Each structure stands twice: as structure tokens, then as C-alpha cells.
Amino acid sequence: MPDTPTLLAGRYRLGDELGRGGMGQVWLAHDEILEREVAIKQIDLPEELAGGDAAVRRTLREARAAARLSHPNVVQVYDVLSLDDRTWIVMEYVPSRSLRQVITDDGPLDVYRTARIGLDLLAALRAAHRAGVQHRDVKPANVLLADDGRVLLTDFGIAALDDDSLTSKSDVLLGSPLYMAPERARFGIGGPPADLWGLGATLYAALEGHSPFERSSTMATLSALATEEPAPAQHAGPLAPLLAGLLRKDPAERMVAEEAEQLLREAVAATEGTASVPVGPVIPKPRVPADDVAAPAVPEAVPEKVLPKHNRKLIALVAAAVVLIAGLAIFLANLPSSSSSTTAGDPPATARPTEATTATAAPSTAATGAAPSAAPSTAVSVTPSKTQGSGRPALPAGWQVWNDETGFSVYVPKGWTSSKKPGATMRYFRDGHGHVLGIDQTDQPKSNPVADWRSQRDVRLRGGDFPGYKEIKIAPVAYFKKAADWEFTFDKGGAQHVNNRGVVTSAHQAYGFWFQTPAADWSTYRKDVLDVVFASFVPVKD
């Protein structure tokens, strides 16, 4: 860190550099008064724009913009410093990768994950616009995908406030041309529609791996932005109408936030359970299927320009088609089949079991109204507690050993079918009557299962995944190295009871157990099924 002090304002001790961009550097630091980690951004402008008090003005504006926002999808600003002709912003430290880094490292995202990210970013932008703040630089580099599952919008460095007299002419052209709205590039005109363009371009990049107007040079990009239409996204699926609406060049014709939110929610519902990369962290969790995603109340509307009637009709027709297709898929999945079943809280089976689990699955209880099957009888008494190296109980009558191809082993009831989607990490077991066991895994465990479940709970509830949610507990349990249970009920296709157990089995391995039954069956199935599963589970050898 040449020429950079190690202790700022007698309080913030700088550590590793977290990142560097056109607006400056970001450091990890330790707040020695509050004993917490923070991120500190050192503002640095290009030489041609750094004259006078430009850096101070820009820092003040970024801090003012972020300080006016209190939203779970916006990085929080704690402090602003002006020291030795340098300016610094002290922010919430979010262990994360930027969306740009994820695209670069892992490749484009699937539709489900992109839609979930889009919902969070749209929520952040709507909160900003209600507060009179425009971001003006929405792009993948300014989107953080946190290790705890959150999606956050950061870097309000060129944000404009409705009542801000500090904005100068030089600020107008700052930002990335790859994600800049045409009206900003040509006329310097901002506003909420320009931020929605940035959202559309960002989601396009998430799906395609590049921005809609990426060219060989900045001038070529600006020329394409002025004279060409964006190429249709090849991997957008149900998000195609959204991208088309957000990337309309005329801001008066551009899709408004309410319609964008509706299309994003429909895309989530249509693709739930298909994501090839988990959204969020670490101690894994099963996803709720498409028909179990409930849209929460629409946030307070903000005044925005209304689309011409012909555009609104087109969007409505496309959205209706998406809903009809999703509904048909759900209907067909609920028909009796010899190889799959659909339950109230689990995606339909997509593969035949690979071992001895070959019994035909019965139709879903939620779909047929049939009484649930009797719980498997157990021949031995088991206890759910388990520590590393403890013995495995004898195989109960009516059970079989499942040796998974990934290395773990567990007892499962005979007659339960198994499925696992290609590329997924979750293995599901079902009896066809609404009783579901899912086992997921990761080689990057979190150190605190309780904190991880709380974080995941907040993310899932914000997304409206569990209608009628009632929490029973999030608490540590004695199981392997460390573990925690997240137990709750929710209402979909009848009252459902769920227990999620996150367990760290070694420094390099963790598992997530999702167990769901109709609420009326919980006490029996918890004792006769889940306790056997926990007692018999053997993780992969580290």
C-alpha cells in the first residue's frame, strides 16, 4: 500500500485491497472502536476530472445518496473521511463476488438465478427512486453477490439526487458506456428510466455473458448504442419480454418498474427448481418449486411514465403466455406417472433412482386428496444426535442403504423414489404423498450454521418463497462438528412442516437436509423417518 496510511482517523486500520476500478480503490479495514470489519473506498478520479474539489464533491454525493437509503439490497455507508487531500468512504463490508466477476469466472447465469437477482436489484432501485436518488451506473461490477445469499447494489459514486446542487456537468458522461442508457449517452439525461435500462443491460449480460452493445472500442459501443437495436438474447427464455421492454431506446416507451417486477416474478415461478447454480450460500438448501412461490405484496408504487396502450397489451399477452405455459407444466407434472411425482413442497422428479429404489411413485396428496401412506415401521430405536466417528445403527426393517455417487451414505425407506437433476447438487427422495427428503452438499462450509440459516431465512422471505411462514426455531444441534436446525411451517397445498438441518462435517464439507411433510404427519414422520436418516448418515470421507 504505497503512500497509503495504515490507520485512518485513528480508527480504521487498513488491510488487504479488495478491488480497484475507475472510481478508486477499496480496502478491507478493521474498525478498532466498534470492533468490526468494514470496507473503505479511496476515491480517485481520472486526472482530467480531478481538478479542484471534484473528489470531495463526488465523495460527498456518494455518501449522501447511500445515506438516504436504508434497504437490504443496498450497501450501507457508515462514515465519510477527508484526510491529507484524499477522500474516503467507510462502508459495510460484504464478503462477496461482483456479478461481473461471477460471469467472468463461472460463465453466464441461468434464467432462474438471473430473475432472482433482477428482483433484488429492482427492489433496490425502487427504494432509491422513492428517496429521490438515481444510481446512474447500474452494471455487473456494481452488483455484489454476497456469500450469505444477498444481492446488493453498490457504488453510488455518480448518483444524482433530485435536490442535489453539487452535480456538475463533468459528472454527466461518467459511467460505463456498455450499460449506459441512450438518453444519457446522447443528451446527458438521467432519471429512473435510465436506471431501468442499466438493469436490463445488466440482466442481459448475466444471461449472455456480455452487454447488449459490447463492441471492440468505446466509440464503436457508443455508435451502436445510438444507431442499432440490441441483438435478441439467446438464453433469455421467459425473460425475453422483460429485456425487450427495458432496452427500448425511447425512455417514454421503456418498461416501468411495476411491469418489470411482474415479469421477473413470473420468470421465477416458471423456472423454480431449474437453476444449475445455487442462489446464495454455502450450507445448502432445497428450493421451493414454482407452484410454491407466492408473490408478496407489491411495494408502494412510485409515479412513473405510463407506456402507450399497444405496448402494455403486448407485454400483457406475453406475460399471460408465460403463465399459461407454467400452469400447463404444473398440471402435467401432477398426473399419475410410473416414474415421477409432484408434491406440495418439492420439484417433480426428473430421473429414475440409480439403486434399489424402484417402486412406482403414487400421485401427490395435494393433487389427488388421497390420504398419506403409513409411515415406515422401524425395527430399531435410534437417536438423532451424532458426533464424528459415532456408530451407525442397524438397518431397520423396511429400509435400504443409499450409497450416493458423491460419497455419502444414508438409510432411506424402501419405496421412496430418488431424483437428481443434471448438474444439480441436491438429491431428493419422495414417497409420492407429500413427504420429501432432500440432501444437498458443498465443499465450502460456513463457520456458523445458525447465522447462515438466519441469513437464508431473510433472503427467502423477502422473495416470498414461504406464504404463511411461521417460524418454530433456528437453533444449534449436536451433530457432527457443528449443525443447526431451521424449523418452520408454511401454507401451500395445505399446511406444510419443514426442518432444514445445516451440518458441517469437516473443514471442507457441509450438508443440508431438507425434510418436509404435511403438517398433520409431522410428529410421526419426524420420529420414524427423519431421526433414522440423521442417525444413519455417513458423510464423504475428507
TrEMBL record:
GO molecular function annotations of the record: protein serine/threonine kinase activity
Q: Does the keyword rRNA processing apply?
A: no
Transmembrane parts of this sequence:
314-333
Which portions of this protein are annotated as coiled-coil regions? Answer: none
Q: Which UniProt keywords apply?
A: ATP-binding, Kinase, Membrane, Nucleotide-binding, Serine/threonine-protein kinase, Transferase, Transmembrane, Transmembrane helix
Q: Which residues form the Protein kinase domain?
A: 12-264
User: Where, by residue number, does ATP bind?
Assistant: 41
Query: Where are the compositionally biased (Low complexity) regions?
Result: 347-385
Report the domain of life of the source organism: Bacteria
Q: Which SMART domains match?
A: S_TKc (SM00220)
Indicate the enzyme's highest-level EC class.
transferase
- Which residue ranges are recorded for the region named Disordered? 337-398
Enzyme Commission (EC) number:
2.7.11.1
Note the InterPro entries from the entry: Kinase-like_dom_sf, Prot_kinase_dom, Protein_kinase_ATP_BS, Ser/Thr_kinase_AS
Transcription regulation in keyword set: no
Name the Pfam families on file.
Pkinase
- PANTHER family recorded for this chain? MITOGEN-ACTIVATED PROTEIN KINASE KINASE KINASE 20-RELATED (PTHR43289), SERINE_THREONINE-PROTEIN KINASE NEKL-3 (PTHR43289:SF6)
Q: What is this protein called?
A: non-specific serine/threonine protein kinase
What is the originating organism of this protein? Actinoplanes oblitus
